Amino acid sequence: MSVVFLGLGSNLGDRVGNLRRAADALYAIPEVDSLRLSNFRCTPPVGGPQQPDYVNAVLRCETSLSPKHLLRHMLMIEARLGRVRQEHNGPRTIDIDLLMYGSVQMASADLQLPHPRMEQRRFVLEPLAELAPKLPLAGGSTAHQRLAQMMND
User: Residue 58 above 90 pLDDT?
Assistant: First the structure.
């Protein structure tokens, strides 16, 4: 089993309900276990068109699925929850990002691990540091250290 961190976000409809439904759907996957969800945070959008604020969280779980198989499940859950990909960085009912998959590093057309922008996003680092403050990040600091550095910049 690999420890995985997923970023969840929603800014359309019942934002908190969308995050809860996504977490429930992930937990329903037989190969996913030990789910732990951070507190929810309301955050302004980053990039893209003008749009409503997001509710964000990070989910920690363990899985025996490969990164690509987990990604397929994530995309199916997004579709079931009404995600429509019309505009880059546009509003969405649900967004599920694979942030980290154990110590796996990979870059393909559809998946980069660890997530290439997670260390620059406070809406990811805050809930990540809540769940795993000592988690080592690709940049060499822990989640807590990177968050503290970001808040001092």
Answer: yes
